[in-house]
Specification:
It is built from 9 helices and no strands. It is an all-alpha fold. The termini are far apart.
Length: about 210
């Protein structure tokens, strides 16, 4: 049919990596970050009961702190790092988020854990807003649908793998130890961001 537009080309991660390695690197980091974020949902109940020795009210308080932090971060995202290039912003947010997980492995204090989770939630929301804003401006309009489908597919695929792995580990290791594992994983994921000079990546200004 001559009136029908040609079918859009399939967008795979390898194609994205060949055409825009920087964006592909960010997609991989974002997927990896989700892998280490999602276990909090299964680690927290065990952390509260076995490490803090607290009840369901403490669990509710810690989860509320996390979600309130995420809510606050969503509103603050457009006001933070406005004059900072995206690469530098992501470095700060990734390292900060990883550091926020460390107190959960080093202390059994409910107030400290709640503050750490609240700050982690805020940093995560700011990170999400900055990344999605960048992707919206960087990816060509004609392929945005395929790009965000790829991004969602890759990040979503990490959830069941993460749940299965950390559920398995939770039967063999303490929850506070696994929070340190997640923190180290996030910090390791931030390393590739430090290997890219901000001045060498065009169009990465943060909103």
């Amino acid at each position: 049919d001559g009136g029908r537009p040609p079918a859009p080309e399939h967008l795979s991660f390898s194609t994205l990596n060949r055409e825009d390695p920087f964006v592909a690197r960010l997609v991989a980091i974002f997927a990896g970050l989700n892998f280490f974020i999602s276990p909090v949902l299964i680690l927290l109940p065990h952390y509260v009961s076995r490490v803090l020795g607290a009840d369901a009210a403490a669990l509710a308080n810690l989860e509320a702190g996390l979600w309130l932090g995420m809510l606050a971060g969503t509103f603050l995202a457009t006001h933070l790092f406005r004059r900072t290039r995206l690469v530098n912003t992501l470095r700060i947010l990734m390292v900060g988020f990883g550091v926020c997980y460390l107190p959960l492995g080093w202390t059994a204090n409910q107030l400290t854990a709640g503050a750490a989770l609240c700050l982690a939630g805020a940093l995560l929301s700011v990170l999400n807003v900055k990344l999605i804003h960048f992707f919206q401006g960087r990816v060509a309009h004609a392929r945005k649908g395929r790009f965000f489908a790829l991004l969602t597919g890759l990040t979503g695929a990490t959830f069941p793998i993460s749940f299965l792995l950390f559920g398995f580990l939770l039967d063999r290791m303490a929850a506070d130890t696994l929070f340190v594992v997640c923190a180290v994983g996030i910090l390791v994921l931030s390393i590739p961001l430090f290997l890219v000079p901000a001045r060498d990546v065009p169009g990465t200004e943060a909103p």
